[in-house]
Specification:
By secondary structure, this protein is α/β, with parallel strands linked by helices. It contains eight helices and seven strands, in the order H-H-E-E-E-E-H-E-H-H-H-E-H-E-H.
Length: 241
């Protein structure tokens, strides 16, 4: 049987000419470049205070800080036992003054407190009662928040309930601090003050929701005020070389 001749169709390769597309792309790019509004750089304008405004603002801040200032001086009496000297709670002494100390009126401005006291005490000469009175507005609002926290009003989840309460309490303190209606407490222990008394006073900052407080060293005016009340501090010992 002879071979059958098969006809082969000639195939042509498909080719797309993109040359016109290049011209079209260039036209489109040119069109968008001419018609599009470029993004303008945005700058923040800052109104810088003048020297007079800056001095006035600093003066107002100093006056506000002075009106909020409340200083607590911790002192004690060291007793010797087995060759060791230490202060006990029975020998603790607490003094306080409000605002900026005036050395000329130190004897009357520096007041001795009866002690730290407990929350709710009716004796107004305990530190607790004094701090409660000075921070009364903030304590009232935080007290309402605490009632909601105790009944899980903020959230049924304990962790979230705690977080919301802490956030709201912080906002309350910030609000009254901005209005200069919360005390700024400076805690100044002498060399004879006991460590336990310092911790006890720090606990009062938490109990009475004092948002701003710090531990500082006695100033020269503080020592003068104590001396005016007949309290002589031991001399500061120089560091050994």
């Amino acid at each position: 049987m002879g071979k059958k001749n098969l006809s082969h169709q000639k195939k042509f390769e498909t080719r797309i000419d993109f040359t016109p597309m290049v011209d079209m792309n260039m036209l489109l790019i040119t069109f968008f470049m001419l018609c599009t509004t470029m993004l303008k750089s945005q700058t923040l304008k800052i109104a810088l205070p003048s020297n007079s405004n800056e001095a006035k603002q600093e003066k107002n801040q100093n006056q506000a800080a002075e009106s909020q200032a409340f200083t607590i001086i911790l002192d004690g009496k060291e007793e010797e036992k087995d060759g060791n000297y230490s202060s006990t709670a029975a020998n603790s002494k607490f003094y306080y003054y409000e605002g900026k100390l005036d050395p000329a009126q130190a004897a009357t401005q520096l007041v001795e407190a009866k002690g730290i006291g407990v929350k709710g005490t009716k004796d107004t000469n305990f530190l607790t009662a004094i701090l409660q009175k000075k921070n009364a507005k903030a304590l009232k609002e935080i007290g309402e928040l605490k009632k909601q926290w105790e009944t899980n009003k903020f959230s049924n989840d304990d962790a979230q309930n705690d977080a919301i309460y802490q956030q709201k309490a912080t906002e309350v303190l910030a609000k009254f601090n901005a209005a200069h209606e919360t005390p700024i407490v400076m805690i100044k222990p002498t060399s004879r003050a006991s460590y336990a008394d310092v911790i006890a006073v720090l606990d009062q900052m938490q109990i009475n929701s004092i948002g701003t407080f710090q531990i500082e060293t006695l100033s020269k005016d503080d020592s003068t005020a104590l001396a005016a009340k007949g309290i002589q501090l031991p001399p500061v010992q120089s560091a050994k070389k």
